[in-house]
Amino acid sequence: MTRLGCLANDFWLALAYFSRLPVPSGTVYSPEAQQRAIGYFSLIGWLLGGIQALALWGACQIWPQPVAVLLAMVLGLLLTGALHEDGLSDMCDGLGGGLDPASKLAIMKDSRLGTYGALALVTSLLLKAGLLVSLAAPWWALLLAQPLSRVLAGSLMFVLPYVRVESAKAGAVVGKSSRWQRLGLWAGGALALWLLPWPLALACILLLGLLFVWLVRFFTRHLGGYTGDCLGGAQQLAELLIYLLLATQLPGGVTWPM
């Protein structure tokens, strides 16, 4: 397989891993290629965010904005199979209900939805809908938040150990990260920041940086590392933080120009 063919194959594997979108039937799986998937995490965010943003913009031409936002959110759930939302609910169930790392990991692996997970999921969806409805151009928020939130979640893999290797989906991409994986992941986030006004980009870097540091300390204290559910939960928290930032009113009632 040529170098270009290998890159394309890696992209299709990443797309199959992070979404429910169809990939070519000739895509070849290998553990090494699957480990490289994290380098495409922000690129997948651009693709999914672009589809959602386009659908939201189109829906706003037909229906009131609250209806269009809800339709775009449903589309997002279909595109990913609710992968990250499932991670958020499992993470909250485990970290909220477990007494020690072993019990927290066992609860997170349980497919049943508990009280903490249900509350987190409902709160997250309601907050996300309310914030997007409040924005003048919510399609831009969707487009930019998807890659940026995935940069934060993927970066956790570079600084924390994976604490559950047995047959978990995230275990397929566990391994020593390369320079190109990091550059690939961060390049997608850099592009999103470049498209923002510089004060907004600076505020975004600051807030996401604080969230990243807090998550590293939080996951280390409770689990000693991360799991796939932690990555999904981190992505959802980062996405909400970006929407909160964009919806923030500045002194004098001025909002961010988005």
UniProtKB/TrEMBL annotation:
The enzyme's E.C. designation: 2.7.8.26
Membrane topology designation: Multi-pass membrane protein
Cell location: Cell membrane
Taxonomy of the source species: Bacteria, Pseudomonadati, Pseudomonadota, Gammaproteobacteria, Aeromonadales
Full protein name: Adenosylcobinamide-GDP ribazoletransferase
EC category name: transferase
Catalyzed reactions per annotation: alpha-ribazole + adenosylcob(III)inamide-GDP = adenosylcob(III)alamin + GMP + H(+); alpha-ribazole 5'-phosphate + adenosylcob(III)inamide-GDP = adenosylcob(III)alamin 5'-phosphate + GMP + H(+)
Chief location: membrane
Assigned protein family: Belongs to the CobS family.
Signal peptide: none
Species, as recorded: Pseudaeromonas paramecii
Keyword Transmembrane tagged: yes
